[in-house]
Amino acid sequence: MPPSQKRARRYDPVRIRTAVLAQFAHVREAVRALTPQQLDGPSGLGEWTARELAVHVTMALSHVTRTLELPEPALAKPEVTLLEWPFTTAARAARIADDTAASAADHPDLDGLYGEVAARFEGLVPGAPEDRLLATRVGAMRLGDFLVTRTVELVVHTYDLNEAVGLGIPYDRQALAACTRLLADALAEKAPGGSVEVRVPPFAVVQCVQGPRHTRGTPPNVVETDPLTWIRLATGRTGWVQEIDAAKVSASGERADLAALLPLMA
């Protein structure tokens, strides 16, 4: 991706921090009830077991605290913006898999791990300014921006756990909203323009794709879907044609086919 030319929307850091902890707590409660047989079963994500997926969820928070404990990068501005972050994930897949396997081996007590990670997060993050730079794996990012990316990690892997072991882990509304909005904005970043309006009620509306810009009345090209379907599409958990055929996505207009632009994160 080229450097971002668009200013990302602002998020309330307190609400995002609260949403991150709330979603993490939902996952912890569900994981606590899993049997050894369920934990040893497949996750649906490569060779990971459900237990390794559950361990990976904790890394969404532990990466924040670990970087907060490091010296702040001596930079005048971030190296990676919030809108650029979704396009950095594919290059990190192998390292993430290795780190997850190592962490799973080192932490046999899952609930103890969840408790330790949550306590460190609650102890370190509230006192740090949102503009504090963190040395993340993809480059220096603002703490406030990095916390928004944690909603994506948590919401997406909540879905993965629900699918893997038949759970009904709920989605915190604020976490779901932030995840939806970031991925919708990332689509507009990837395909800038104003010819297609993408609606993900009740959380996001963006315009994208080059072509005639809509100014008033009913847009000629409209895509609409629900938040979870949008998140699944954006992260490669499902396909465009599949969701069109299932009537989970409505697309009207000659430019409203987004298949070539998805997924955003792989």
Report on the architecture of this protein.
With 266 residues, this protein is α+β, with helices and mostly antiparallel strands. It has two domains: 13-174, Four Helix Bundle (Hemerythrin (Met), subunit A) (Up-down Bundle); 191-261, Nonspecific Lipid-transfer Protein, Chain A. The protein is 48% helix and 10% strand. It contains nine helices and six strands, in the order αααααββααβββααβ. The strands form two sheets. Strands 4-3-5-6 form a four-stranded mixed β-sheet. It has a two-stranded antiparallel ribbon with strand order 1-2. α1 packs parallel to α6 and α3 (50-68) crosses α4 (93-106). The chain is globular. It starts with 12 loop residues before the first helix and ends in a 14-residue tail after the last strand.
